[in-house]
C-alpha cells in the first residue's frame, strides 16, 4: 500500500468539510501561519502541526494558561490539528519530513528565508521536483530578496514601518499600535487565499506551485483609503482617533451611560439620525447638509451631536437607530461583545468540555465546517502520524533514541 493510500484510510476522527482529504503539513509558528492552517482544519483538512524541539513559542505566551499548561494564545490558533515534534536540523529529521511529504498536499512554513534550503528542502530545486503536486506556502516578513529581504517580521514593527500606526491614535496618544495583531491576522487570510487559489489551479492542471504571503505587502494593503487619498492629494494622512478621513459623522460619541459609534455614510442616514435625536434642522444647515461640508465642520458637528446624546441611554439608542437604518453600535468590552445574544445565534463562541474558542467566520451552506479537535499537546500525535506514513515501531524508536522526536519541549533551561 502506498503512503498516500495509508494516509487516506487512517483518518480516525477526521472532520468533514470542503477540504476533507487534503493533508497539510504546518511547520509555522506564532500567529499568521497557525491561523491560516487552523482555518484549513476548520473546513476539513487534516493538518499536522510539526514543531521544533523548542515548540511553538505561543505555548508559553501567558498567562492565562489552560489545564495542560499551554497559553490561551496558542489555543486560539491551533485547534483541529494533530501535533508531532521533529528536529528538522538533523538529517534523520529531514528524511522523516520528506517521507511525510509523500502524502501531503500543502506545506506551510514561516521560517526566515533560506532555512528550508539549508535543510535540503528548497522548494524550487528539491521539493517541486520531487513532489510536483505540492503547494508550498511561505509566510515571511519581507520576502527573500530586495532591500529588506530575509529580515524577520513582527506585527507591531510592520504596523510602524508601513504607516498603520501613523493613522491610528489621536494627537494626545500619538501614533499607536492597532490593538489586535492585524497584520499577522490578515497575512494568515492572505496565505489561506493563496493556498485555495493554488488548489483550484492544481485541480485543473495537476501542478502545485509556490504561494507567498508577506507581512510587508499585507500591511501596505491595509492602507485603504489612506494610501489612495495620499496618492490623489499628496497630503499626508494624520491621526483622527476613531474618526474616518472621508466620512462624517463616522466616529465615537459619548452618551449618558457610555460611548457609541456612529457610522453614518450618506445624507439620508444623517437626516434620520438628526430627526430621531432631536437635532431638528441640523441636516439643512449649510455646514452639515452634505458629507463634504460635514467633514469640513466636523468639530462643530461633534459638539451638537454629543449635546443631543448626553441624556440618552446608549443600548436603547443604538437599537432604535439601527431599526431606522442608521448604523450605530455600543462600544463594548470583550466580555460585553460575547454577551450579545447574536453571538449564540451565529455560533461564534465554541464552548465544549475540552475547548473554548471563537466560531468559524466563514460559512458554507453545504459544507459548513466545524471546530473539531481541541488544540493538541506538544508532540501528542507523533507516533500516530508516523505510523500512518509507514514508519514501523523500530524506526520510530530509533528516531526517538537519536533525539529526532522529542517528547517534551526543550525550554533551554
From TrEMBL:
<keyword id="KW-0808">Transferase</keyword>
<dbReference type="InterPro" id="IPR003673">
    <property type="entry name" value="CoA-Trfase_fam_III"/>
</dbReference>
<dbReference type="GO" id="GO:0016740">
    <property type="term" value="F:transferase activity"/>
</dbReference>
<dbReference type="InterPro" id="IPR050483">
    <property type="entry name" value="CoA-transferase_III_domain"/>
</dbReference>
<dbReference type="InterPro" id="IPR044855">
    <property type="entry name" value="CoA-Trfase_III_dom3_sf"/>
</dbReference>
<dbReference type="Pfam" id="PF02515">
    <property type="entry name" value="CoA_transf_3"/>
</dbReference>
<dbReference type="InterPro" id="IPR023606">
    <property type="entry name" value="CoA-Trfase_III_dom_1_sf"/>
</dbReference>
<protein>
    <submittedName>
        <fullName>Acetyl-CoA:oxalate CoA-transferase</fullName>
        <ecNumber>2.8.3.19</ecNumber>
    </submittedName>
</protein>
Amino acid at each position: 500500500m502506498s503512503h498516500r493510500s495509508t494516509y487516506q484510510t487512517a483518518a480516525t476522527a477526521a472532520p468533514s468539510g470542503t477540504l476533507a482529504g487534503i493533508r497539510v503539513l504546518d511547520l509555522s509558528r506564532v500567529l499568521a501561519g497557525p491561523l491560516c492552517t487552523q482555518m484549513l482544519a476548520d473546513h476539513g483538512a487534516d493538518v499536522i502541526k510539526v514543531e521544533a524541539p523548542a515548540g511553538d513559542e505561543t505555548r508559553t505566551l501567558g498567562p492565562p494558561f489552560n489545564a495542560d499548561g499551554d497559553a490561551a494564545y496558542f489555543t486560539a490558533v491551533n485547534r483541529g490539528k494533530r501535533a508531532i515534534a521533529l528536529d528538522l536540523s538533523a538529517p534523520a529529521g529531514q528524511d522523516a519530513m520528506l517521507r511525510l511529504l509523500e502524502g501531503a498536499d500543502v506545506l506551510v512554513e514561516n521560517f526566515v528565508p533560506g532555512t528550508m534550503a539549508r535543510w535540503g528542502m528548497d522548494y524550487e530545486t528539491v521539493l517541486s521536483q520531487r513532489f510536483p503536486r505540492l503547494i508550498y506556502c511561505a509566510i515571511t516578513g519581507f520576502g527573500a530578496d530586495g532591500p529588506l529581504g530575509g529580515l524577520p517580521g513582527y506585527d507591531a514593527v510592520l504596523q510602524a514601518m508601513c504607516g498603520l500606526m501613523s493613522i491610528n491614535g489621536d494627537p494626545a496618544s500619538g501614533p499607536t499600535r492597532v490593538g489586535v495583531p492585524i497584520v499577522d491576522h490578515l497575512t494568515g487570510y492572505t496565505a489561506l487565499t493563496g493556498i485555495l487559489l493554488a488548489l483550484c489551479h492544481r485541480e485543473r492542471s495537476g501542478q502545485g506551485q509556490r504561494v507567498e504571503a508577506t507581512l510587508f505587502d499585507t500591511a501596505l494593503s491595509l492602507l485603504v483609503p489612506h494610501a489612495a487619498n495620499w496618492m490623489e492629494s499628496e497630503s499626508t494622512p494624520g491621526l483622527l482617533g476613531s474618526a474616518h478621513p472621508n466620512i462624517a459623522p463616522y466616529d465615537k460619541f459619548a452618551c449618558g451611560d457610555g460611548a457609541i459609534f456612529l457610522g453614518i455614510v450618506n445624507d439620508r442616514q444623517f437626516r434620520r439620525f438628526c430627526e430621531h435625536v432631536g437635532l431638528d434642522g441640523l441636516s439643512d444647515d449649510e455646514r452639515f447638509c452634505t458629507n463634504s461640508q460635514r467633514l469640513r465642520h466636523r468639530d462643530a458637528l461633534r459638539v451638537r451631536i454629543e449635546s443631543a446624546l448626553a441624556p440618552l441611554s446608549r443600548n436603547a439608542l443604538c437599537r432604535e437607530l439601527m431599526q431606522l437604518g442608521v448604523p450605530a453600535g455600543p462600544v463594548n468590552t470583550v466580555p460585553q461583545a460575547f454577551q450579545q445574544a447574536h453571538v449564540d445565534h451565529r455560533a461564534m463562541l465554541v464552548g465544549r468540555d475540552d475547548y473554548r474558542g471563537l466560531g468559524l467566520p466563514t460559512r458554507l451552506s453545504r459544507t459548513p465546517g466545524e471546530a473539531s479537535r481541541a488544540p493538541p499537546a506538544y508532540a501528542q500525535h507523533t507516533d500516530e502520524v508516523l505510523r500512518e506514513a509507514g514508519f514501523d515501531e523500530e524506526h520510530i524508536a530509533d528516531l526517538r533514541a537519536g533525539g529526532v522526536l522529542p517528547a517534551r519541549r526543550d525550554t533551554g533551561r
